[in-house]
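TA notes, week 10

Several of you asked for a full example with nothing omitted. So below is the full record: structure tokens for the whole chain, then the designed sequence directly under it. When grading your own attempts, check the secondary structure regions first.
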């Protein structure tokens, strides 16, 4: 019989008075990110089947964050087998997404702020971002993938206007 056990993982090296306040993992346990009380973000590297607790913490600079959510969805297309996304809410309410996150690059490449502000947010396993706005409304971020070649436009996409592309949030 196996008994449940807690495995102690050394936290990131933090200055005196700084401590971890939240931790997020992806639905498939391949991403592990944490946040300290100063808004600094860290990612656990070296996660694998052979090393499920990982090997090291790496700082993820660029933003001062107050909330973080992770998603992981399976996308079967030419070269992309999965899509992993880290979404954050900055201390001023701005929202941002981390691009380039993968098994080989768990920290990703860069942050990109997205339109809108939020009081809090969450993400579905299918990578749909939901947020409570600063005035208490509920919003869902809508995204649209456009083909690279105009010749391959779907008939319903031909009626899109520039205004359609600017609408990234739906107020419910």
């Amino acid at each position: 019989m196996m008994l449940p056990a807690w495995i102690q993982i050394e936290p990131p090296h933090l200055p005196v008075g700084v401590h971890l306040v939240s931790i997020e993992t992806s639905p498939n346990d391949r991403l592990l990110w944490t946040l300290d009380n100063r808004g600094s973000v860290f990612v656990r590297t070296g996660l694998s089947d052979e090393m499920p607790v990982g090997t090291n913490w790496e700082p993820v600079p660029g933003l001062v964050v107050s909330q973080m959510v992770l998603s992981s969805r399976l996308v079967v297309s030419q070269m992309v087998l999965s899509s992993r996304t880290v979404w954050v809410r900055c201390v001023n309410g701005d929202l941002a997404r981390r691009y380039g996150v993968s098994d080989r690059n768990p920290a990703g490449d860069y942050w990109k702020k997205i339109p809108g502000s939020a009081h809090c947010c969450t993400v579905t396993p299918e990578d749909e971002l939901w947020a409570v706005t600063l005035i208490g409304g509920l919003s869902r971020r809508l995204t649209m993938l456009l083909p690279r070649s105009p010749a391959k436009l779907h008939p319903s996409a031909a009626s899109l206007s520039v205004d359609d592309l600017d609408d990234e949030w739906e107020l419910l």
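The chain is about 5% helix and 40% strand. Use that as a sanity check on your answer.
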